[in-house]
Amino acid sequence: MTGGALPVHLIEAQDPHSSRHPGFDDRAIALAAGTCQQLARIGIWQRLAERATPIQRVHVSDRGHAGFVNLAAADYGLSALGQVVELHDIGQRLFGLLREAPGVTLHCPAKVEAVQSQPGERQPYA
């Protein structure tokens, strides 16, 4: 991420190892091809790709209305339009990457209860 050049502290209310983590349930999400490319550029996609399912075709329609669109990866010279990943699996893998990242400190489970600053200190930004 920052290569250890910038210290990062991640505060997460839930234990990432918990099977009941609300963000890591049994749902699956679709990631666009561009998102997968961005994740690859920062070295993350390589750890997720083995558990992803490529999206070869997409059909878009609205029941009761005329018209539809079919998209096929091959029509655009792509191997896939995107990828489908399971949240539980991707969440565990992403937290694994964070645990290994230099300069990243995880605080889990934890919550921010107050923020205080002193005059002259640099202020965090969002």
Through-space gap between termini: 17 Å
Question: What letter string, H or E per element, gives the SSE order?
Answer: EEHHEEEEHE
Task: Report strand order across the widest sheet.
Answer: 2-6-3
What level of helicity do the residues show? 10-25%
Q: Total number of β-strand segments?
A: 7
Question: What is the 3D shape?
Answer: elongated
What is the tally of helical segments?
Answer: 3
Low-pLDDT stretches:
none
What can be said about the biggest beta sheet? 3 strands, antiparallel
What portion of residues belong to β-strands? 15-25%
Q: Indicate the mean pLDDT.
A: 87
Integer-rounded radius of gyration:
19 Å
Structural class: alpha+beta
GO molecular function, one term: 2-octaprenyl-6-methoxyphenol hydroxylase activity
EC number: 1.14.13.-
Enzyme class: oxidoreductase
Organism: Klebsiella pneumoniae
Task: Explain the overall architecture.
InterPro entries: FAD/NAD-bd_sf, UbiH/COQ6_monooxygenase. This is 2-octaprenyl-6-methoxyphenol hydroxylase. It comes from Klebsiella pneumoniae. The protein has 126 residues and is α+β, with helices and mostly antiparallel strands. The chain has a domain of 76 residues. 21% of the residues lie in helices and 25% in strands. It contains 3 helices and 7 strands; from the N terminus they run ββααββββαβ. A 3-stranded antiparallel beta sheet has the order 2-6-3. The chain has a two-stranded parallel sheet with strand order 1-7. Strands 4-5 form a two-stranded antiparallel ribbon. A hairpin with a 6-residue loop joins strand 4 and strand 5. The longest helix has 14 residues.
